[in-house]
Amino acid sequence: MGGRPRGRWFRRIKLACEVLFIAGAVGLLGLWCSIPATAALATENPTSTAFIDLRRDEAAAAGKKFQLHWQWRPLGRISRYLRAAVVYAEDGDFYTHDGVDWHAIEDAVERDLTRGALQVGGSTITQQLAKNLYLSPRRSFVRKLREMLIAFSLEDHLSKQRILELYLNVCEWGDGIFGAEAAAQHYFGHAAATLTPAQAARLAIALPNPIDRAPTVSDPMLTKKAVRIIRLFRMQGLVNADQEREALDAVGAPEQGVLP
Any idea what DSSP says for residue 136? Predict the structure, then answer.
């Protein structure tokens, strides 16, 4: 008699686990089926993005006119300084990871747990491209999971250079300003191909919050970030000593530098 209730509870627990497993598998399958096809991006440029559509809808809801500034440029017509600066600032392991930087995510989760708010950051350039093209800025675990799955798809179908080209052309750099060319024209009055090391550093540190971190904003912490990028330019041989000093002066670095 005593064994029957235990056996009955065991069967119920086993059934519940099976139901949860099947529900989870179905959910993951549905999530995977919702991932957009990315292979065409290897040769085709997007005609719009989720973020552009979002900003247009937000402007319409507020009764404002949305003015889009967006001019596509191939990677070769975007300053090598900006290409390097964005990788330095946003994703130092860009050329070695598979779309997701698991160490960065682990660090981000630990920081979030310390603050008592679990948001999960640590996005790579590939993940940010996925978000800009297909998702929204709203934070949730489901959106983060979709972002990761899209990033894997992008990495499967595109080269690293193509991913960087797409990202530099679709990322948001201000109110209605999308892509490196529009950002260079708006903030500095010339093409993205002719950005100086200092200008490239300023544009790179504006991401991913181009309103608070715009190149026109003067802030000691932003100057520190710009100085670090310029130092990396010198370490990687992109600039010589004279160019480094000129760039440091342009971003407002003190004579003795601002690095620790």
Answer: -
DSSP assignment letter at 39: G
Domain spans of the chain, in order of start: 33-250
* Residue 45 structure tokens: 């440029």
Contacts 24+ apart (CB under 8 A), 235-241: 236/84, 238/80, 238/81, 238/84, 238/197, 239/197
CA distance 44 to 40: 6
Q: Give the residue ranges of the chain where pLDDT is below 50.
A: 1, 23-24, 113, 116-120, 256-260
259: number of CA atoms within 13 Å, CB side? 8
Judge if pTM exceeds 0.85: no
Q: Are 165 and 57 in contact (CB under 8 A)?
A: no
Provide the residue type at 170 as one letter. Answer: V
DSSP structure class, residue 69 = E
- Of the candidate CATH numbers 1.20.80.10, 1.10.3810.10, 3.90.550.10, 3.30.390.50, the domain formed by 33-250 belongs to 1.10.3810.10
Provide the strand spans (E) within 131-231: 172-174, 177-178
Beta strand 69-70 pairing with 177-178: parallel
Q: With CA atoms as reference, report the closest residue to 183 among 213, 161, 214.
A: 214
Q: How far apart are CA 215 and CA 203, in angstroms?
A: 6
CA–CA dist 126, 155 (Å, integer): 8
Taken in order 67, 72, 73, 75, is the CA torsion positive or negative?
positive
